[in-house]
Amino acid sequence: MIPAGFIWALFLMIAIGVPIVFALGIAPMGAFILVGKEAFLKIIAQRLYTGINQFPLLAIPLFILAGEIMNTGGITLRLVGFANALVGHLRGGLAHVNIVSSIFFAGLSGSAVADTSALGSMLIPAMEKQGYTRRFAAAVTAASSVIGPIIPPSIIMVIYAYIMQVSVAALFLAGVVPGVLTGMGLMVVTSIIAKKRNYPKADKRASLREVGKAGFDAALPLMTPIIIMGGILSGVFTPTEAAGAAVVYALILSSVVMRTIDRQRFVKLLLRTAVASSVILLAVGTASVFGWVATISGIPTKLTTLVFSITDNPYLLLLLINLMLLVIGMFLDAGPAILILGPILGPVMAAIGIEPLHFAIVMCVNLTIGLATPPMGLILFVASTVSRERVEHIAREMLPFYIVHISIILLITYVPALSLSVPRWLGYLQ
How far apart are the first and last CA of the chain? Predict the structure, then answer.
């Protein structure tokens, strides 16, 4: 039996600044050495390799590549133009455009960081010129970027589905309603703030002809999520094959139709994709080692016993788990947090009768929101870099938006139908 103390070793290494990908591998190795089972060290390398060498995980670099092509190819401009035609006439129009653009962009990249970088570099300066404070512009960008990993496709959902053996398609579908609700909630709060601060709006509402033209320009990029989800749901593609189809479509759109990507830019985006993918996949490999050692050490069973000793009320347990995930999300990125906590918390939730898909979407949404919370929220740092505004100032401006985020978490936690209805209607749940 492996002692459970290696969990504390993991958290200690993270606290002192050891990269998570290394901490996930070193902690299990140390546990085997301490109990005199050095022979198991040979298995670690095998587990790490087999943890990465999985066909479903190929979707991760492919979705990253598709997002890079879309972003580099200038497709973001068309999405913003369409969003502006739809909601630019509202009070605080550019702030609403920011949010709607995030909803559109979410269906292309599945990455909150890509959303913040692409939209922020374009819309934050534009909002500042129109009279918005730089802090508010950065806050809206960061708050709406959270939608990126919630609406399909989503890289962190692919990771969770692989680690916890949940259907990728079902998890993608479960994120549609929470993602749209988040966007609507942010727009309501933005309207209130815009009226209070008298933020500008467009001189006139876009005509139907202008909306139609903007929609036509954005139609081809917006076909990406339709191709992905349509291919998966119709059985034409597996999620991994759908990611490959998205790459091919993005390449055709950017290099043939729009002609915005040349060979030099393509090489650069390939390098960025390779670096981002290698980081994620190495973390997945070490996490598979960590999950294996956690299982043989009996940690899920011990945690289940501990949880039931506190309370057996599923509603209270869900609240406690959500609070824990919110705190953890302040310090860990969503991907590593899922890799560490998924194999531990998933069995506990199943033991109290929580539908695995329900807990999957709760965990993914909760940890995604952690990307925008201080002190370690990656989105905040990207928004700070783009806007040249201090992280703490952006976080303070985001307080009203945090209320929306927390409300969405509570809604999908205690009203499962919001996230499970679409997968159930399409036959992924009984």
Answer: 38
